[in-house]
Design brief:
This protein is α+β, with helices and mostly antiparallel strands. It contains one helix and five strands; from the N terminus they run βββββα.
């Protein structure tokens, strides 16, 4: 008899701006769009990429805080790179 496969939480109704955790890359990210099983995601300051729905887990409060901290860090770096004329 086959052992039951562990179930992962479902991500029904993905919407733009939703925080998810991408298991293949081990990073929290935000959904840009979803079509079928393909999902386009992005991180603050990063380039978007496509992933499979099966690699995504729902975002937790911890993952949201991680993305917020990363966004602040990216904004700080960009401001630090600006030089007044």
């Amino acid at each position: 008899m086959n052992a039951p496969r562990p179930r992962t939480p479902r991500l029904a109704g993905l919407r733009p701006g939703q925080v998810v955790y991408e298991r293949a890359k081990g990073m929290p990210c935000m959904v840009i769009s979803a079509t079928g099983t393909r999902v386009r995601v992005v991180r603050p300051g990063g380039r978007p990429w496509e992933t499979e729905l099966r690699f995504l887990l729902p975002g937790t409060a911890y993952r949201c805080r991680q993305l917020d901290a990363l966004a602040r860090h990216v904004a700080y770096q960009r401001r630090a790179g600006e030089h007044p004329d």
